Amino acid sequence: MSPELLRLSGVSFAYDRERPVLRGADFVLHAGERVAVTGPNGAGKTTFLHVMVGLAKPSAGTIEAFGKSRTSEGDFPEVRRRAGLLFQDADDQLFCPTVAEDVAFGPLNLGKSRAEAREITRRTLARLGLQGFEDRITYKLSGGQKRLVALAAVLAMEPEVLLLDEPTTALDTETEERMVDILNSLPQAMVIVSHDRDFLAKVANRWVRLENGALREAASA
Ligand SMILES: Nc1ncnc2c1ncn2[C@@H]1O[C@H](COP(=O)(O)OP(=O)(O)OP(=O)(O)O)[C@@H](O)[C@H]1O
């Protein structure tokens, strides 16, 4: 069996105590897996990704990541570095004036020099077909371009796991095909939340469904 990367055991979470979102959810991610997560609107798919990286704190259950139990706030910065989250809304990910600043932000934060961060930014943008985008003004990009730049910002951190929340939102057919090719060329294990079953069928090798607060293995598309 491939190494275990993330494990949620008996995780419960509620924004409002009356309406729990996760109820004793169990999930394990192994290296090499690209897990499609489907489920009705409001089932808690985004919440599930956020719990894995400590952006939502469970009321019960345990989280293990990269071989360690993660309990306190201080445990999660490392998890967020190693498990990169592509937010559902690119505007939550991109907050700098230019594309280069947004993509270089993570590497600089990890202690890379300016020259190293510039090189990582150039390489990552080129890999996503965004060569020459460095000086573009982020807020003026199209929805699809923003999505790819947000992915570049995640990949620039060289994460071991990718958590992708609706990665094809705002993408036209051509850009969606590019996203498929990019994801299929990457080595990382992935958890991919999406309502787009055709897209998922092209990238996923395992399917789970989130319903009634728990995850269940599911048949593919
Ligand atoms: N910050 C918040 N405060 C209060 N309730 C929230 C918050 N975020 C989400 N919720 C509620 O929690 C439930 C789960 O939301 P979540 O976004 O995780 O679902 P989802 O499966 O990702 O939905 P969708 O498919 O529509 O994106 C929903 O009922 C939602 O309204």
UniProtKB/TrEMBL annotation:
The name this protein goes by in its record: ABC transporter ATP-binding protein
Any one GO molecular-function label of the UniProt entry: ATP hydrolysis activity
Similarity-based family: Belongs to the ABC transporter superfamily.
Keywords, ordered alphabetically: ATP-binding, Nucleotide-binding, Transport
Pfam family, one: ABC_tran
Organism lineage: Bacteria, Pseudomonadati, Pseudomonadota, Alphaproteobacteria, Hyphomicrobiales
Organism: Rhodomicrobium udaipurense
Occurrences of domain ABC transporter (ranges): 6-221
CC annotations in GO: ATP-binding cassette (ABC) transporter complex
SUPFAM superfamilies in alphabetical order: P-loop containing nucleoside triphosphate hydrolases
